[in-house]
Design goal:
By secondary structure, the protein is mainly α. It is 47% helix and 6% strand. The chain has helices spanning 8-19, 26-43, 55-58, 62-77, 83-92, 120-129, 159-165, 168-174, 185-193, 201-205, 217-223, 255-262, 271-276, 286-289, 324-329, 332-338, 340-352, 355-368, 376-384, 386-391, 397-415, and strands at 149-150, 228-229, 231-233, 250-252, 290-296, 312-318. It starts with 7 loop residues before the first helix and ends with a helix.
């Protein structure tokens, strides 16, 4: 529904920072990638898709990833790639312990085991720290739910910063004992007394606040209240492990869209359609391809809609029919109609405060104070909040914008009569 705003002037820095996640493992990943890459090149009719350098896959644009996905899944379907090769690729592009499936489907019995660590926590943290810059606040598939994020990395960059800068209260909240229970105030004070820990995390591990031969204290902190951020793989890693860690294959989404509705399905039947339907692609254009409106069943009875919700429905209109695939996959028609009270309230407000009435309000303010800050535009914004909703990426932003635009057009038509 809403494209992720990757600004051209920031994209180089963003890619560079993303690659830093893999700094410690890059050489091992590259070493494991090369023999599999050569095997894939021999099997594929498009060998150039399998890049020499693994970095070029990690930060490839979505158009490239869609072509790579289509080629790889074709090789799998024609049994030119073995299941063992797929498992080897999963161990290189190691996102999480298991392969995601739709809610209700069984997980594989065996977890992924790999020399390469699991990158999901760091990738989640990467997006969390850049949420404001990328304007990530609502689900990019539905705009019905806010993205939920929690964990110490919402407040601190890493364990060392947590230990050095956290308050006494935060230390007892984020630092657990070996059994998972919070440390005592006395132990938290011990942590503070022994600061700093930057560049010397071993000093924290050596503290006598609790003991366990199974895990280091710093590792326990990192695992406890783990960062959570719902990221969907647009192109499922279960079908193409190679795209499992690619920056532009991640879409911040709500659990409903991510797990229950999309799962491992793919929007689009070929690479072109996949790009058009991915919020990470430069060609994604849901906003101009779909219009959301309120449709009354009785065209002559449109006033006081909130008192008669059953007389109205939310309707999706398509300037590009391809985007109906997205609306259908995420059940947007049903879900938006369930929440139509949001639209009906705005619909009534827009009718109660027409442009003529807003002008009258401005004149009232201006009579008592000629320098009033209550311009017609400010009154309109205070009433309808269009700019606030759009600038701050609130839920239902597109629906509300489309309804405001629809009423503006109707009011302009009336003024011409």
């Amino acid at each position: 529904m809403r494209r992720i705003e990757y600004k051209l002037e920031d994209i180089t820095t963003l890619k560079k920072e993303y690659l830093q996640i893999f700094d410690k493992e890059r050489s091992e990943m590259q070493k494991l990638w090369e023999p599999l890459r050569d095997k894939l090149r021999k099997k594929s009719s498009k060998p150039d898709l399998y890049k020499d350098n693994i970095d070029d896959i990690l930060i490839a644009d979505f158009d490239f990833l869609a072509k790579l996905y289509c080629d790889f899944t074709k090789l799998v379907e024609t049994k030119q790639i073995s299941s063992e090769d797929c498992k080897d690729l999963e161990m290189i592009f190691h996102y999480s312990k298991t392969t995601k499936k739709k809610s209700g489907e069984e997980e594989d019995d065996d977890e992924i085991t790999s020399k390469i660590r699991m990158f999901q926590p760091d990738i989640s943290a990467f997006f969390m720290r850049r949420a404001d810059k990328l304007k990530i606040h609502t689900c990019h598939y539905c705009e019905i739910s806010y993205i939920n994020a929690y964990g110490y990395k919402m407040l601190f960059q890493n364990v060392e910063e947590l230990l050095d800068k956290a308050s006494l209260e935060d230390l007892t909240y984020f630092i657990p004992k070996a059994n998972g229970k919070p440390i005592s105030l006395k132990s938290a004070k011990t942590v503070i007394i022994n600061r700093p820990y930057s560049g010397n995390i071993g000093k924290f591990d050596a503290l006598s606040i609790w003991h366990s031969p199974a895990i280091k204290k710093s590792q326990q902190v990192d695992n406890y209240k783990r960062n959570h951020y719902d990221l969907d793989h647009v192109l499922p890693k279960s079908k193409c492990p190679i795209v499992g860690l690619s920056l532009f294959n991640f879409v911040p989404s709500c659990p409903i869209c991510n797990e229950r509705l999309k799962g491992t399905d793919v929007l689009g039947t070929d690479a072109t359609e996949m790009s058009l339907l991915s919020p990470t692609s430069s060609t994604y254009n849901f906003d101009n391809s779909v219009e959301i409106s309120i449709t009354p069943k009785d065209t002559f009875a449109i006033l006081n809609s909130q008192a008669r919700p059953d007389d109205f429905k939310i309707t999706f209109h398509y300037n590009n029919p391809l985007y109906q695939k997205s609306v259908d996959m995420f059940h947007l028609r049903e879900r938006y109609n369930y929440h139509k009270g949001e639209a009906l309230r705005l619909f009534d407000l827009l009718q109660d405060y027409s442009p003529a009435q807003i002008k009258m309000l401005h004149n009232v303010f201006a009579e008592s104070d000629p320098s009033t800050r209550y311009t017609e535009e400010k009154i309109k914004e205070d009433l309808f909040g269009e700019k606030f909703i759009s600038d701050n990426n609130r839920c239902f932003a597109k629906m509300k914008k489309d309804i405001i635009d629809m009423l503006d057009i109707l009011n302009e038509d009336k003024s011409l009569l």
